[in-house]
């Protein structure tokens, strides 16, 4: 009997193993089907057993695939409906794969065991499927930083176990869903602690039913939407709340009086709405750290008493809130206070900051009030006090005082080495805080409700660095150290941004498993960041330095495939090396007309073959001859790219040769792009390419010589060229025509992607020429009207919709051109002294007044006489910088409207530009002051010109 029982158990075990093996194989088939169209799959995915052969990113339980974590794997493809076949899946994280696109299939609702779904920072679009409400076990849902559109599906109200709900930074629209007509709304999510819905297009009112006392909410973020109506008083009963953001909406009415019941609240953002009535009474809210009620229309009042009695408050912002009267000295003597912003009010009397210097206070910004005196005006105080545009600063003796200057942000932080000296590192490597050269995993950390404002205080960053290392070490990840740098508070979103680098410990680079696990720690909120940094999210940079696959393969198939691949690779490398040697010898003997890219023309589909039409290839020897071996005497400019040399060809043609420095030659794609584009487009308002050189590791571009430099230099006065209003209109029209040609007449259309004043050159007649096509893109899919690509460009000119969605369109150039138009009007840089030109114009613009009330920011050089057509010009510029691309005009429409403005100003836009040499200064010898060609960022000029550094934007 005992033997029979043993045989029975053995049979059961065999049956169980067979069933498990069959299930495991079914998961293998499902994975193969799911990823059939994917590019860049992990190389360890060989064999037929995802649970037993070390497949990177795959985790199994009982021989079933239960977890897929492939964050930051540079995956390209779509999420197919075959995802439903992985029936045991409980975790799916595909974050930070910008190449993943398409819609989320409705079949995802069949993954009934799914608990964690993270698709942050990809390129998914379309509606969020209603079937997502079938994921009853779901605890963590993060779909932020994609391009989702349509309404928030009401079925999300079925996710009774959800804790984290993040749908922010998309294009979601419509109303906030609440229960009704047989569906459950967001108010039914009793376990949810996080509603993150900011940076969408949600509209309508905030339903009173959204909040009630049974909820567990900690963070409620609905900032930067289109919500209207009043704030419901029901918000005052959710006692667990710690951060509330309804700023940057269209809310009206009074702030509910019971908001003071939120005694756990630390961050309150209600700025940039249409709120009225009395300032809310925040008395007794002793955990408040950050309060921003700015830019609302509250009733006139003195500074409220609670402003001087909140013990943990670091930041108080009450800009443009109808405050008046004397400022109490007690306001500045709170122990935690770092920043006070009370700009654009009616505060008056004498300012007394008491002993503010002994506390943590860094900034008191009272610009544009009516303050008449400052008791510490003759004292050496450390805190930055801003009284510009107050009565005290109208006094002749006070106008030069530092407190009469506008606020300037200069907060800098970067992790320092840990008592060691950074070694020199090879190309692409960076020295870690422990002074080891390696390829770090990098990206940007964002805090959505930062509780401090002193961005230069290193103690905050040290605490964040410690929490990062603690999180990585707790997961046994191969991390040596982390570094933070470039802290920045984005004025358009009020999000805090800081660059993060994570350095490997056991090698000079991470393998794929290391990268995806680091990404998962951050994306899944396993990183327990300090409370002052919550809530956060992360957007990763692409990582291209993966170490070789180190996992052992149990599959014989994997070993055989590996050996075969190794042999093939060896033979291929040997063959390529032989070909390379032969071609290098041939190239050395080749004629000057040899095209170094000619061998790529047979591979037109690989994206590497420039299609050249007329651009001449110059040999290195030729260019050495024309520049006297690149003599310093022929240097006319230098910058981050390298140096620019003036040369005369044997034909007598004057050219400018831009020679790349060794450290800047990683941009081979940009180098090829500029050659390719400039050789196929020809227009009087586009800079002409004479040729290029690609030889012996050199990258050089040969342009037509543009003598009068950049528009940026002319607007700043550095070039000595006087830019009156008529000239600025002509420059705007020329640049617009050049762009319109790229958008309308080039086939396929070309998107420049980096329009700015330093990329508009002025020829001998001061005609505008658009330059620098290194970042340009071809719009090859005209039906879609956009291309999805990594965000590149220059801050200040960058289209916010492109920045958020990574969808590049011609309207992205239109936005940049709108900023350029405002630059022409004001002669101010897009971001100057921490102020964004678009926001500055919006703040002062009043269409009911003369010149739209822009007198204070118009460039004085053109404000001496009334500039005809300026109001229409600014109106057009503001249409170009609309937040949404669909609301902006096309460049063809911009050209037509500028032509109409010129006719209004008495100019004939159809006539050829005539020389305006009277507008060009002369040098000491009576010669014309001619600016050398140098449109690269960061150029300094030499020769007959002052050595003036042009700071990068």
Task: Write up what this structure looks like.
The protein is of the alpha/beta class and 953 residues long. It folds into six domains: 26-204, Leucine-rich repeat, LRR (right-handed beta-alpha superhelix), CATH 3.80.10.10; 300-407, Leucine-rich repeat, LRR (right-handed beta-alpha superhelix), CATH 3.80.10; 430-540, SEA domain (Alpha-Beta Plaits); 562-591; 598-704, Phosphorylase Kinase, domain 1, CATH 3.30.200; 711-919, Transferase(Phosphotransferase), domain 1. The protein has 13 helices and 47 strands. A 15-stranded mixed β-sheet has the order 1-2-4-6-8-10-12-14-16-18-20-21-23-25-27. A nine-stranded parallel β-sheet has the order 3-5-7-9-11-13-15-17-19, with no helix packed on it. The chain has a six-stranded mixed β-sheet with strand order 34-38-39-37-36-35, sandwiched between helices. Helix 8 (725-745) runs antiparallel to helix 10, helix 8 runs antiparallel to helix 13 (891-904) and helix 12 packs antiparallel against helix 13 (891-904). Mean pLDDT is 83; it is low at 4-23, 549-567, 584-596, 598-611 and 912-953.
